[in-house]
């Protein structure tokens, strides 16, 4: 795959790609600039399109004043919270994301976590490593209640997959819709949530939504799975709830600070699974991200509406993904 840098409408837009050690393998051309956090500011003048390939970076905020020609920013992630700073939000720059790439992989990951925790896979592996024949009973998945917070494509795919294994699923979104509870009904759903899955975007409304108060509404057998953003959870409150038995366990793929510090108590708490922000990263996912960007670049050059345009007043894409 090669970026077609000759524009159909008579100009060749300069494309700057912000990356870390990992960079796109198939995007190149004379008008493509590859930069890191340290060189972004110097590269922004004259840049028309910015691809944020390093979606963990926060460098765009500081470098943004140097952007004198920028018209479109695309991020290789579904979440856009690292790009929703005032200067970009108040500008005419269009923001798009990679919605649609991660839906099914994350749904599979969540479903796998539910089954692994219900069937005590961790205990089986521990016993095997010790050479112990440790018979025990496991939990049923079918018929259990899962509350999934986030009614975008990831949340909907997760809800559908959990329902397919027999779970009763309550889907919660920003506002009510067909099969969706509005977010203000969440406190009433939590007391019967045996599994609470967080797949919401990080906004002013959702930041810290799982805290001491909301954790206290969960039944003691509940488990929490977070595949959204780390800041959806007040991490110290979750640690306290796990220690005192307010909740039975957690599977966390995202954290307030990443990588998770080595001294975090989450590493050693019983009933906790820690994974390194990988729930959507399947084999070939980078190729899919490149393809999505090139498809949108073709739209841009043809003067067509871009896909996955983020509503900057809400912080996420509304409407269909592609």
Label this structure with key terms:
single chain, 322 residues, alpha/beta, Rossmann fold, 2 domains, 7-stranded parallel β-sheet, 5-stranded parallel β-sheet, 16% strand, elongated, D-isomer_2_OHA_DH_cat_dom, oxidoreductase, D-2-hydroxyacid dehydrogenase
What does this structure look like?
Helix 4 (about 105-120) packs across helix 6. The protein is elongated. It has about 325 residues and is of the alpha/beta class. The protein has a 7-stranded parallel β-sheet, covered by helices on one side. Strands 2-1-3-4-5 form a 5-stranded parallel β-sheet, with no helix packed on it. Residues about 1-10 have low confidence and may be disordered. The longest helix is centred in the last third of the chain and has 17 residues, at about 285-300. The protein folds into 2 domains: about 15-100 and about 285-315, NAD(P)-binding Rossmann-like Domain (Rossmann fold, 3-Layer(aba) Sandwich), CATH 3.40.50; about 105-275, NAD(P)-binding Rossmann-like Domain (Rossmann fold), CATH 3.40.50.720. It is built from 10 helices and 14 strands. It is about 25% helix and about 15% strand.
